[in-house]
Amino acid sequence: MGSLSPLSGNKRADMDMQEAAGRADGILDDVLKEIRPAVRWTHGPTTTGTCDVTRRRTVMTIVSADRRGSFLGVVDRSWRKSGYRIKAVNKDPEVPAIFAQTKDGFGVSLIVGGEGQVFFEVDSPCVQESDVAESTTEPTAPTYEGMEHIPRPNIRSAFWSAGAP
To answer: Mean pLDDT per segment of 10 residues, for the chain of length 165 residues?
Structure first.
């Protein structure tokens, strides 16, 4: 993609927040397509800062402790294959995580939270300010609109949930 403009500090002059949100959606779409068998997910909140945007997706498929390492391995291989730089890996068995960065400066993370719920997040670099629409990617799990919080994972998978109570 484009380079940083010396006139705008560290702000990318070639992309606005809506375009960055679209790029983040593409990054999320790509990694979720790599996970086989597929998991079901819903959108997390989109947030914006003064010059950045964050897109989130929450996996609603139960990923058992027995399958968590396999799940993280699939994501790690996908990101490396895409040329992402792995910045950090948290190997804690309860809350493992992977933090990476794309060649064009997007921060990408997978964090396993309470009860094994998997969260994906993509943070844009600093870009030109603009309005940001909600993602047009259709979630594969309920959207939980109107609820204050997304519930814990509640969709079973013969593969990913194996060994889960």
So the answer is: 43 90 98 97 95 97 94 97 97 93 97 93 97 96 88 95 79
Q: Is the pTM of this model over 0.85?
A: yes
Strand bridging mode 12-16 / 127-128: parallel
> What is the 8-class DSSP label of residue 57?
E
User: Exposed/middle/buried for 21, CB within 10 Å: 0-12, 13-18, 19+?
Assistant: buried
- Where on the phi/psi map is residue 163: left (φ > 0), alpha (ψ -120 to 50), or beta? left
Domain boundaries, the chain: 6-128
**Residue 101: what residue type?**
Q
DSSP state of 134: P
Domain 6-128 coded CATH 3.30.310: yes
